[in-house]
């Protein structure tokens, strides 16, 4: 099965295969920057740039989920989707270090040497990072509910990239510890749970060829958004290495 949709209506199994083919071709574990990151080929400043820019993506995930939550038509669907907000924003009474994915990502960022307030301000992120992440929120806001749900299915492919990232970074960077990468541990159980719901929803509700094409296109666009973020990092901090005005400049680096 290729990532290209067909003119006929696909069976649910064929649709799932087509969606998975999108990730096999386009998921950002294939990007050169990711390969440099997990192989230990980046310096500390380049890892900091990744952590800083990725924070903006992490911080906007709950906004994206809140937008979709407001569009879901039934209490049952809203209850199921609401867990995603708690996963990232945390919830009252939780122990602070584990209180949501955003908090854990901030701990990752400070663990690689960034200032917490600076990270949260997002003033140093790349313009392309902001543009790409905001485009994801717009996709969820403006497209059909089916397409918005389908766009979340990049989580089908996340266990692979998490395994590569965690093992590679622990093995290759002496400033990275298991505690630094604690963000990723809960995602190994949260993401499959979220995929189970979203994939079942898409397979049930994408009933026409047009709806199926829309779902596949939405997932493709989400993969492009993730890929574009790494394009921006590679251009600014690897090759050719031109950092846009106002963006984070690693210590010791001259523009």
Please describe the structure with a list of short key phrases separated by commas or semicolons.
11 helices, Heme Oxygenase, Chain A, 67% helix, mainly alpha, 255 residues
Short overview:
Keywords: Oxidoreductase, PQQ biosynthesis. This protein has 255 residues and is mainly alpha-helical. The chain has helices at residues 12-26, 32-39, 44-71, 75-89, 101-111, 116-121, 127-142, 145-151, 158-172, 184-205, 209-237.
Topology (SSEs and partners):
Layout: H1 12-26, H2 32-39, H3 44-71, H4 75-89, H5 101-111, H6 116-121, H7 127-142, H8 145-151, H9 158-172, H10 184-205, H11 209-237
Helix pairs in contact: 1-11, 2-9, 3-4, 3-5, 3-7, 3-11, 7-8, 7-11, 8-10, 8-11, 9-10
What does this structure look like?
- This is Pyrroloquinoline-quinone synthase.
- Residues 18-231 form the Thiaminase-2/PQQC domain.
- This protein has 255 residues and is mostly helical.
- The protein has a single domain (13-237), classed as Heme oxygenase-like (Heme Oxygenase, Chain A, Up-down Bundle), CATH 1.20.910.10.
- 67% of the residues lie in helices and 0% in strands.
- The chain is built from 11 helices and no strands.
- It has helices at 12-26, 32-39, 44-71, 75-89, 101-111, 116-121, 127-142, 145-151, 158-172, 184-205, 209-237.
- It is globular and about 55 Å long.
- The mean pLDDT is 92.
């Amino acid at each position: 099965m290729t990532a290209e949709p067909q003119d006929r209506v696909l069976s649910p199994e064929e649709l799932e295969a087509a969606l998975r083919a999108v990730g096999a071709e386009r998921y950002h574990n294939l990007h050169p920057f990711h390969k440099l990151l997990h192989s230990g080929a980046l310096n500390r400043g380049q890892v900091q740039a990744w952590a800083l820019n990725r924070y903006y993506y992490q911080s906007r995930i709950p906004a994206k989920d809140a937008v979709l939550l407001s569009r879901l038509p039934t209490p049952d669907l809203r209850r199921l989707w609401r867990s995603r907000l708690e996963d990232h924003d945390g919830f009252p009474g939780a122990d602070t270090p584990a209180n949501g994915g955003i908090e854990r990502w901030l701990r990752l960022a400070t663990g690689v040497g960034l200032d917490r307030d600076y990270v949260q301000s997002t003033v140093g992120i790349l313009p392309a990072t902001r543009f790409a992440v905001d485009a994801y929120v717009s996709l969820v806001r403006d497209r059909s509910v089916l397409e918005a749900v389908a766009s979340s299915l990049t989580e089908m492919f996340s266990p692979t990239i998490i395994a590569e990232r965690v093992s590679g970074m622990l093995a290759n960077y002496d400033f990275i510890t298991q505690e630094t990468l604690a963000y990723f541990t809960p995602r190994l159980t949260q993401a499959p749970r979220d995929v189970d719901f979203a994939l079942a929803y898409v397979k049930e509700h994408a009933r026409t060829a047009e709806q199926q094409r829309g779902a596949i296109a939405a997932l493709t666009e989400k993969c492009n958004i993730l890929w574009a973020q790494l394009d921006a990092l590679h251009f600014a901090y690897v090759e050719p290495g031109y950092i846009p005005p106002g963006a984070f400049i690693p210590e010791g680096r001259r523009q």
